[in-house]
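Dear colleague,

Thank you for sharing your sequence with our group. We've completed the structure prediction you requested, and as agreed, I am returning the results in plain text so they can be pasted directly into your records. Please verify that the sequence below matches your submission; if there's any discrepancy, let me know and we will rerun it promptly.
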Amino acid sequence: MLNQLFQPVIELFQLSQDSEGESLAYCLNEDWDIFSDHLTLDEQNELLDEIRFGDLRPKERYLEDNSSELWIPNSDLFYGSRSEEWSEFSYHIRYKRRFILAPSEEDRFTDPRKWLPSLLKGITKMYSPKARFFRARRGGNKEKYKVIEPYAAKDMEAPPPEKAVYGRANPPGIAYLYAAEDEKTAISEVRPHVGELVTLAKLHPKRELRIVDLTKVPKVRSAFESNLHEQIERTKILRALNHELARPVHPDESAVRYVPCQYLAEIILDAGMDGILYSSSVSDSGNNLVLFFPNSVEFEEETGFVKISKVDVSYYRR
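Please find the predicted structure tokens below.
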């Protein structure tokens, strides 16, 4: 009985092929704190072996991999943002069916409309009208090709629907408002040049906002949840969504790249949420927001310039 209970979580790990790794009990405790602190690590591994091999004969047990050996996760991206289900869902919605999903038998993913809303309750963040967000825009109003004053607050609002182009979370023709939790992140997101002037505006909610916080997607709480692998895969999809929303929009990139994000954003909207909080790819500790209802916030009348004094660049060789 215990063997069957432990089997799904044990399958998440494999024996290490080199000197890297930890004992199996250590791995399980690291993620789920399964064993009592009153047991030493050796005792935990012995208990785990009894659970795993209790029904086997001594000769059969000898052939099995002991829990005290070195183990590693089946993938070092186990709690990362890569997901087989995300990959299949993304391919399906980009190139097979877009508006009415129809997964075939060979597709591993389940339509997110069936399971995503139930996961949102645990990652909902509330913002009161006292909260402050920031929005930046390169440049300002010009006179004879010279920038003379910052854009007015009305010029910092979301575009009208007829002028709304596709974005990370919105399809063309539907206007969402993108903002940031702090000034630096808002400024960094417009990718200004050194010496350039950037208009900065402040805004606040008109009412309490329900925001899905993708920056704090928790691990699966228990190793013994039903459908453990499925639950883990779905949390990875939320991390993948956070990762994709954080990616900068490139003008030369195909619009279909963002269709999966737009689809999931609309499910989140339909679940009664006002927007999504996601990580910034250009600010180490900053977060961005996409607000589904631009009229749910109000811009402060006074806007101002900031002048860019330095731009940091990080890179890696490919």
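Summary note from our side: DSSP finds nine helices and 13 strands in the chain.

Kind regards,
the structure core
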